[in-house]
Amino acid sequence: MNTVLRQHAEQQFAEELAELAKQDRHPRPPKWQLSPWAVKTYLLGGKLENGFEVSPKYIGSGRLIEIAVATLATDRALLLYGVPGTAKSWVSEHLAAAICGDSTLLIQGTAGTDESALRYGWNYARLLAEGPTPAALVESPMLKAMRDGKLARIEELTRVPAEVQDTLITLLSEKTLPVPELGMEVQANKGFNVIATANNRDKGVNEMSSALMRRFNTVILPTPDTFDEEVDIVTRRVAELGRALALPAEKPALEEVRRVVAIFRELRNGLTEDGKTKLKSPSGTLSTAEAISVIGHGMAVAGYYGDGVPRAADFAASLTGAIVKDPVQDKVVWLEYLKTIAKERDGWKDLYRACMEVV
């Protein structure tokens, strides 16, 4: 029995990756486990010649995935860019899983990320005892990816201090990592590349230098184009979340998912879905990922404190928490939406009353 809370993509979808590898007769770049055609099929889903169904991991423009995969087959690094919650990390992980079978070579960007996270560190006990030796060197995920010819992933690149970001310039242009303490360098093997993610909405963002930007091919992942597309994404991910966490609740009714998605889209766009009423937007991004979190929380509440059937009252608190980030400005926006839109909609009275109780 699997007891891991969250499996890596290559573990969770091992059967699909293995089946794709067996059916894949297209040319593969050096050291790739799948061809670009198979990587695209893995991300977007589809039926193979033998009837095997590959589940979609990303619901959106196939052209964007083609550009991303083609970029990684060249010597250009890939930057997935956009607002928070547009599946940048999700796409990054699945690209690495499909291409090199290893999505774990990850560097998490924060304000405290230093050069050692991108280059290498030292085992200080051995360093003091033996001096600088290869045995005392602590390899970073980047160094391992270069040595093994795999993909390194950098999350939230624009949260990394600018002077640390520029460490990447030599790595990406020369494909080498100098180790002056040992009088050597590590040269990247075929198959090595970098996938970075960044968003343009979080506070404390460090702009990338033009020199570094030139080393990346940028693919902007948009928010879902249509209402139905976003509902499909949320429904799929909520079902996966419920199975992974073994929540003792039923899958939420489609109508509940549609209401949450409608609220997020309307407040995010500042306009009702029918285009008739303009709305004020809250300070948060109200991403698809947050909608998934709201519904997942509602399932937990219904499962552990209710009868297992998610209803409006189970979503109200987490829905309000997702929208009201600023207790003054956002609360006004949310109350106005509830009183002018939710209250007047057919079949929304239960949601209106539940949210008014917790706002």
Keywords:
single chain, five-stranded parallel sheet, 17 helices, 2 domains, alpha/beta, Rossmann fold, two-stranded antiparallel sheet, 359 residues
Summarize the structure.
By secondary structure, the protein is α/β, with parallel strands linked by helices. The protein contains 17 helices and eleven strands. The protein has two domains: 212 residues, P-loop containing nucleotide triphosphate hydrolases (Rossmann fold), CATH 3.40.50.300; 132 residues.
Q: Any idea what the CATH architecture of the largest domain is?
A: 3-Layer(aba) Sandwich
Order of helices and strands: HHHEEHEHEHEHEHEHHEEEHEHHHHHH
Full CATH superfamily name of the largest domain = P-loop containing nucleotide triphosphate hydrolases
Shape: globular
> How many discrete structural domains?
2
Q: Could you outline the blueprint of secondary structure elements for this entry?
A:
Blueprint: H1 9-12, H2 14-23, H3 36-44, E1 46-47, E2 53-54, H4 62-72, E3 77-82, H5 88-100, E4 106-108, H6 115-118, E5 120-122, H7 124-130, E6 137-139, H8 141-148, E7 151-155, H9 162-165, H10 167-174, E8 176-179, E9 184-187, E10 193-199, H11 210-213, E11 216-220, H12 227-245, H13 254-269, H14 288-305, H15 312-323, H16 329-340, H17 349-358
Parallel strand pairs: 3-10, 3-11, 4-7, 7-10
Antiparallel strand pairs: 1-2, 5-6, 8-9
Helix pairs in contact: 3-4, 3-5, 12-13, 12-14, 13-14, 14-15, 15-17
Describe the protein.
This protein has 359 residues and is an alpha/beta fold. It folds into 2 domains: 9-220, P-loop containing nucleotide triphosphate hydrolases (Rossmann fold, 3-Layer(aba) Sandwich); 227-358. It has 17 helices and 11 strands. The strands form 4 sheets. It has a 5-stranded parallel β-sheet with strand order 4-7-10-3-11. The protein has a two-stranded antiparallel ribbon with strand order 1-2. The two termini are 42 Å apart.
